[in-house]
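Q: Could you fold this chain for me?
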Amino acid sequence: MKREQWGSRTGFILAAVGSAVGLGNIWRFPYMAYENGGGAFFIPYLFAMLTAGIPFMILEFTLGHKYRSGAPKTLRALNNKFEWLGWFQVMISAMIAFYYVVVIAWAISYAYFAFTQAWGEDSNAFFFGEFLGVADDSAPSNLGSLQWHLLLPLCLAWAATYFATYRGVKGGIERINKILMPLLFVMVLLLIGRIIFLPGALDGINWLLEPDFSKIWDLKVWSAAYGQIFFTLSVGFAIMLSYASYLPEKSDINNNAFMTVLMNCGFSMLAGIMIFGALGYMAQAQGKDLTDVVSSGVGLAFVTLPTAINLLPAPGIMGPLFFCALMFAGISSHISIAEAVTTGLMDKLGWSRPKTATVFCSVGLVVSSLYITQGGILLLDLVDYFINNIALLSSCLVELLLVGWLCRLSDFKEHANRLSEFSIGLWWTVCIKFVSVGILLIILSNNIKTAFSENYGGYSNFEVNTLGWGVLALMLVLAVVINLNSKQEVRS
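A: Sure. Below is the predicted structure, expressed as structure tokens.
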């Protein structure tokens, strides 16, 4: 059967950018920059982008295009002993898809609440109490009852992903990203255009951009910059391999990779200006220092910013606009995560796209319901920590070691250069073989040491060992079993 293809280069770029631009660009990057030297953080961040982000993106686009298959089949083509890595990456995507969609469901609910600011004056009590129903005894191992009011937005979020993956690369994923991505950028620019003129907003932006050059010499700042690049670009967990496998024969790989990474990083900076402008205004309106109101992650999006929206002029317009932007960023990323799983399963099982999308999204909806229980946010927090900090970075490191040190890297460079308007040279080879590998070794070893020395989030030993390390071990065992089974099939 002939493999699907993207309808246009613009469609592929927008889909790749849609994958990379996600919730983390809005709620993780601004705080990361603020905490690590403000404007000075952009020096290690840009350096990380040039030495890790763009080289890794070129590598994944090249592999996907050259082997025309998802992660398991691509890695098996490189070395049949490494198919397990492809399945491990697919499982990372599946695990993320199951809980990431829940945050999109929260954003859908809040886009509706924002018309009337239904969260009231105490947004913290509303979010954790009334909205999520977190009880005193809630825990990752004690989930409590299902929060039925979250089921409808969860179904809507899965429906958007199902539509895109069911309809395919050109008719679903490309079409929906051609709508969502321009809308997302327009929404953020509109929000910036209004927020920047509010009193205190420029002070907030100044907090973000004012450089603290003393931080440049701090290794933790460089580690944070590289960590942000690896987290945000959707590399190392099957997504970009899958997307690139649908590229036409003649595709400018190097140019596409540069554009995808630059647009993602540009959006992160726009999001930082939007968030810190709103926080600066909020701090002045409440007579507080910015340091008293700044936060990141779930707390920023669903507690701090709703409070800021209460204080904004025309909150019934600004609020829905912000949460729709959050929702669009989440949906475009979730579609790509689900597509990575769908492509891997189609390649392996030979199922049709409609059947594969239906099975995966149905299973996903059932598993995701665990995260809309009273203790769901705690389960999400624990699983996300181990998937992002251990599994994802391990996957990136092993992939780079395999391709950089066990394969002929020059073959991939020649493949990319033959198709591209401009060529990559020694810079790319050095970044893949040495810089990215070295930095990942430092970050990953530090994360593993921290995870062993202290129980993340104060969760119990039982919860950390079963829902953290236990889940990772199970994924690894399953991946190896599938790999062994494939080798057995080949021998038969």
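A (continued): DSSP finds 19 helices and no strands in the chain.
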